[in-house]
Records
---
Amino acid sequence: PASSGVQAVRASGGHPRAPPPARRADMVERQIRARGVTDAGVLTALSKVPRERFVPEALQDRAYDDTPLPIGFNQTISQPYIVAYMTEALGIEADDRVLEIGTGSGYQAAVLGELAGMVYTIEIVPELAERAAATLKELGYGNVHVRAGDGYAGWPEHAPFDRIMVTAAPAEIPAPLLEQLAPGGRLVIPVGEQGQTQWMTIVEKTDRGVVSRRTIPVQFVPFTRNPDR
């Protein structure tokens, strides 16, 4: 649901008619590794997940472009660099339990599923949740669980979580997500009002309390809630 505020959005520079695996490799080299994402697991995950399966059919030729793309319902699939940046920032271990708020297309959840033991992802738009769940099932991501609902309250039945990622921007960090973050856990979230500068924020729950730091300016879709909440 976002593009970086510090990286120019441009075409991938690859070969749009090349087979998806070749375009995927080009994306990883040009858009991700070249910008400083070096975690081997993250690069491998981005090399494996078929991004073209998570965009509308009419946009599949643009699946590996260096830009967010619309997926309907005023939502987007994030720019590949941002997916990689946030995933690397999480620092996922193989047995981690990960919560994602904002499933969208399901692409980020698939990337997380390549790295984590278990992924729980919540999407407020029921149609997107259903579509993402179907795509993830077709691709064999049995460790990714999708729920339609309001992500503000997290997913307490499966808490605590070692890692939490939020792919929409609230004005401030939802308190329930901090509560569901395990000791030693990490939360990556864009924070800021719409129309103003948003900042990627990395939060860690340490033995000294909750510590947060801002990294790069970004622009994400707003964090929405059900109107009856």
---
Amino acid sequence: MGILILLGSFVLLLLIRVPIALTLVISSVLTGLYMNIDISALVQRMVSGVNSFSLLAIPFFIIAGEIMNEGGISNRLINLANVIIGKIRGGLAMVNVLASTFFGGISGSALADTSSLGSVLIPMMKKQKYDADYSVSVTISSSIQGVMIPPSHNMIIYSTAAGGVSVGALFIGGLGPGLLLGLLIMILTYAIAVKRNYPKGEPVKKEEIPKIMREGILGLLTVVIIMGGILSGFFTATESAAIGTLYAFIITFFVYRDIPITRMGVILKRSFKTLSMVLFLIAASSAFGWLLALLKVPALVSEALIGISSNPYIIILMMVIILLLLGMVMDMAPLILITTPILLPVATSIGMDPVHFGVLLILCLGIGLATPPVGSVLFVGSAIGKISIEKASKGMLPFYAAMILVLLIVAYVPQVSLFLPSLFGN
């Protein structure tokens, strides 16, 4: 009955469109009352859920991303990508993918990637006679790299939900799959561009190249500082995030100087709004997850999946299908917090490394961001491209195939996720 109240009220509240964080709190309180659990115990679980040093990295990453985005980094990364790869057929589409790779390493967000780069590149592609659905599909699919390529605050959320898996190992583990996804999408993008005879990119003036390279690389150094500090062992993920934010502040306001320093107030306000939602969600999920464990839901799910098949490959496939289906109807952060305590024990019971499972989880839910009916990235891309969700989804079909291929490789070839962490001793 406790499980029925917890999960039943959760689903019911979601169906009537109660915000996810409030849904988690209300479901937890109702279940706690039924089980005669003191409400103060639930509050303590919520507080302990956000009482983590590693979570301090999240506000720094959010602020750094907002600073660089406000300061015009997206245009500079587009220009840098154009210098590198813009001359070939379908060059602007290729620039879109490469710029997403660069920007994903700064923002850590597929939604920010689509909003910032898409607002520039989708109209530009349409102006150069690229089909609207193709322009939107390239932007959406390439933005999923943002949740994989470090630094990704979703990896930190998973680390917390998983009980302290190394953030550094997760960052490095996501790098290989993220770059593989970008490479495969770039190949597909080029193949479609050749088939449809899309135009070649316009050459960049030679005298402009040094400035474009310098400004683009200065922005990318934010990622180098963060990852270099973690890999070298000089900094923890949180300390690297703080230093990276300071560097982003200096570059934006004292080197680029596209915006006045008075804009910092707006940036902080926007960052704190995002942060408050994330931390409230983590706190609410902590209480919900504690009740799941108390009711032995993870053990029941594990027994159910193993009861269907004891074959590890089949179990992995079932977990992937579950995560993909959930990703279609819910956002990423709450799903990480809800599904990790349930599915991680199943994964470890069949010998999966927690880092491998974390990367697989993030990729599954990242694909969900681009999938109807509730994919937030799909909605934003469609709005920017001024096309219907149906048309965007149809244009996404070959890109969905590419993403699923990468997903299966990540699922069944653990070294794609684990080689770099083992190489650097994480």
